[in-house]
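ping. complex inputs:
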Amino acid sequence: MKPKFKRTYFAFPYALLCVLFVVVPLIIMLVFACTDFEGNFTLNNFGYFFTESETQIVLLKSVGTALLATVICFLLAYPLAYILASSPFNKTAILVMLFIIPMWINSLLRIYATRTFFEMIGIERGYLAVVIGLVYDFLPFMLLPIYTSLNNMDKSFLEASYDLGANPITSFLKVTFPLSMPGVVSGILMVFMPAISTIGITEMLGNKDVYLFGNLINDYLGEFYTWNIGAAYSFIMLILIAVSMLVANRFGDKESNVRGGTI
Amino acid sequence: MRSKTAKTISWVFIAIMLVFTYLPIIILIIFSFAPESKAIGNWAKITWSFDLYAQLFSSQEILTAILNTFILALSSSLLATILGTVGAVGIQQLGKKSKMLVNGMSQITVINADIVTGAAFMLFFTLFPTGFNGFPALIISHTIISMPYVLLSVMPRLTQLNPNLYEAGLDLGAKPMRTLMTVIMPQLIPGMISGFGLAFTLSLDDYVISKFINGNVQTISTLIYSATKKGIPPVWRAVSSLMFIVVLIILIFINVKGKKKEKGGLL
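pong. complex structure:
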């Protein structure tokens, strides 16, 4: 008799590919990070990070820049999402769609468009251009999750708050904003994470003075005799991302983060 | 009165943000008809022409890159759609622990920074024979990074399905495979379409991972990235404009298709 077919068998190819091409490469990277050029075990590659203050400054600058871009994105996207989710503007999805469309356009080409635009209006390449570029590139990723959570909010909570005598500002602070937190958290993640590791935006819009952690890793990986250091720094980046993820999960509900990531 | 002012302010804000979003793209499209690189900013001196488009269509390098980009995007997103959908059907049936394990592994690349994923792929592929970098490495890596997105767009549909559907198929005498293909799969098509769309744009978008493992194969993204340091020639204005239009058409197509099948397509 033939063995009984089970639907769980269908999970095998997927799981196998994940192990082979996600987990194994990360292990290989760890091996590179913990060995020197000759292949001997060493922790020096990580050591460089802690002994070279320049590297730490680059990382701090990256975190600062990513935070700045995230804050600006939030300040622009929240009111926009709030307006778009409010009744007079929410009759059709077209307005929201207009803001989301750029997400689907090649980001490097969009940054190139910004570069051309900056050249035209006379914004010099440098730190300011990079920050505007980050905001420009990642704004839709902040807008969409916030809009989604505001739009899916049960409006009767707000009515209840008015009925109980709260004014609009109190209602917003005590009801609307807390209910939109999952969207805010996943928006912050979706801007902060790519912003902290960007290489294209700094290279397209920055000058020599704008050098962030992504560029550092990229440069180390560019030369094969510094691969080991590049691998170690990639791990530091990975840890940084994991930590931000854990911090964010403490604030937002887990499920909505995952969902926010899909759209 | 107050709400009227609020409405006006809202409209102004929306308008400003729309301009902020689209002005650079529109400017780029307009200047794709202005061949001189220096003319930007000085409208009077511009001689409008299709020169940049002519350059584009006579540049073997760019045409090959465009072709490569679409071959790569199409093959990797097809593979990702098949693997992700089949995976979703299996993963949904797994026990709680193994489900968490597989989901966890599949989320790694979604959460991880592209440069770290790229670094891991690059170092991993050094173990493969030379010549592996290029299309094989690109197709594998793009399939792997897109699979989770297909999984995530198919899974909600799958969990909403009536669990008795599968049993009903079996009871009526269909073999498991036939039941899956004729009863379950058709229900998943909207999720598969949006998963495919996500995978496709993800592949089009990527340069960070690709540039580590592309060997001699150039895509549009890796080509413009490698030109960044030397200064990007004006012909890229035409390339970008063309890409914007193509993506727009794909988006409209997918949304119209998705809307017909189910309310709320891709966006």
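The first helix of chain B runs from residue 2 to 31.
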